[in-house]
Design goal:
The complex is a heterodimer. Chain A is built from no helices and 11 strands. In chain A, strands 2, 4, 5, 6, 9, 10 and 11 form a 7-stranded mixed sheet that branches. In chain A, strands 1-3-8-7 form a 4-stranded antiparallel sheet, with no helix packed on it. Helices cover about 0% and strands about 50% of the residues of chain B. Chain B contains no helices and 12 strands. The relative contact order of chain B is 0.33. Classes of the chains: A mainly beta, B mainly beta. Chains A and B meet through β5, β9 and β10 of A and β5 and β6 of B.
């Protein structure tokens, strides 16, 4: 089946620094990728929709200057958490829509744990 | 606007018993419906999806779901639970548009007792 890979799976960074999370579609082209944040025991909160070659569309309440999203190619999107603070600590999950598949098939990455200390 | 309701936060069944996880949706257009499973500290895995073809959808790991328009439901079932089924399950809805996004329910935790 289709695979979406996230890297790193776990990262610890100091408060005030920036950290980048990568999301790659390994065996398909993804014109659209999504970034979610998930708090413990809760559902996924959509942060932004990333379209290849254009600016990301952010959900209401998500700071676009803090959560920078770049979708430079059909197989790679990155989320950069800038000037991270402890409250940014969370599980971040990306997903990608298979461009060549009908039925709005979306595949998810394994997630990335961010801990800001 | 679309929404998904997953009643309850936790379901516990005995190994070998029927699994029934409920999902009701609200959508102004014919929806696409999905069930995802999440194991601890992992991403989401697609179990099955309904995209306006057969109303009874079979997925992986022995799960299936039936789309019932009159009840606006898409309940997930499995005839016989296995210990490895213990996980978090999310129902999601999207419209059929090519660029539509998923709207998730709050999820439900399935526990399987030996």
């Amino acid at each position: 089946g289709a695979v979406v890979s996230q890297h790193p799976s776990r990262v610890i960074c100091k408060s005030g620094t920036s950290v980048k999370i990568e999301c790659r579609s390994l065996d398909f082209q993804a014109t659209t990728m999504f970034w979610y944040r998930q708090f413990p025991k809760q559902s996924l909160m959509l942060m932004a929709t990333s379209n290849e070659g254009s600016k990301a569309t952010y959900e209401q309440g998500v700071e676009k200057d803090k959560f920078l999203i770049n979708h430079a190619s059909l197989t790679l999107s990155t989320l950069t958490v800038t000037s991270a603070h402890p409250e940014d600590s969370s599980f971040y999950i990306c997903s990608a829509r298979d461009r060549g598949h009908s039925g709005n098939t979306i595949y998810f990455g394994e997630g990335s744990w961010l801990t800001v200390v | 606007a679309q929404s998904v309701t997953q009643l309850g936060s936790h379901v516990s069944v005995s190994e070998g018993a029927l699994v029934l996880l409920r999902c009701n949706y609200s959508s102004s257009v014919p929806p696409y419906l999905f069930w995802y499973v999440q194991y601890p500290n992992q991403g989401l895995q697609l179990l099955l999806k309904y995209t306006s073809a057969a109303t009874l959808v079979k997925g992986i790991n022995g799960f299936e779901a039936e789309f019932k328009k009159s009840e606006t439901s898409f309940h997930l079932t499995k005839p016989s639970a296995h210990m490895s089924d213990a996980a978090e399950y999310f129902c999601a809805v999207s419209d059929p548009g090519a660029n539509s996004k998923l709207t998730f329910g709050k999820g439900i935790t399935l526990s399987v007792r030996p």
